[in-house]
Amino acid sequence: MNKFAALCLILCAAPANAHPHIFINAGLVFVVDADNRLTHVQVTWEYDELYSLLVTEDMGIDADYDGVLSEADTARLTGFDMQWIEGYNGDLVGTLAGQNLTLSAPTAPTATLTEGKIVTTHLRAVSGAPQINGTLSFLPYDGTYYTAYDVTLPVLVQGGNGCEVTVDTPDIKGALSMTKAEIGALPEDFDMEAAGLGDIGRRFATDVRVTCAAL
Question: Does an H or E element contain 57, and which?
C-alpha cells in the first residue's frame, strides 16, 4: 500500500472522528541543571490496550493473561520499542528559541504492563545541554500520523530554577477537516512531500513548552 492509499484510509474513507492505528498517551520529564541547562528528556509512552495485547501475544508475554509480568517477561519487553532505524527521530521534535535541538538515541529503557497497557520509558540526552534562555518547545508526534500521541501523562521539570510548563493541545477535529479537504483535491498519484504533506502529523501535535527565569 502506498502512502496516499494509507493516508486516505485514515483520513478520507473514515468518519470525521477517525483515528490512526496506534494510540499513545505520552509524558515528558525535562531534566534541567542548576544553570537551567537542559541535559536530558525522559519520555513515557503508554500504549493503547489493543496494541498492547497484540505486542504481548506476538512476544509470548503474559501468556496466562493475569496482567502480571514475570522477570523474564519484563526483560523481554524492555526495549521492544527502542529498535530505531537510522534517521528516526523518536517521534519527538524539540526546539529552543526556534532552533532545532539534537537528541541522542534512547537509553535506560523500562517497560511495565499496567491495567492491560504497556508503559515504557526511555531517556534522551540533549546535545550541548543548552541553557533555557528562550521558549523550549517539544512536540511528540508521528509525521505520518499512523500513531497518535496524546500528552495526558505528567509533564514535569526536574531541577532548574523558576521553570514553568505549558501544554498547548491541538484542534484535532479542525486539522482532520482541513487535511481531508486538501487530500480530496489531489490526484491519487501525487507526491506527498511535494504537496507539503510529508510531515502531516505535525498538525495533530501537542506543543509542550518550558520557560525558565533568567539567571
Answer: helix 49-59
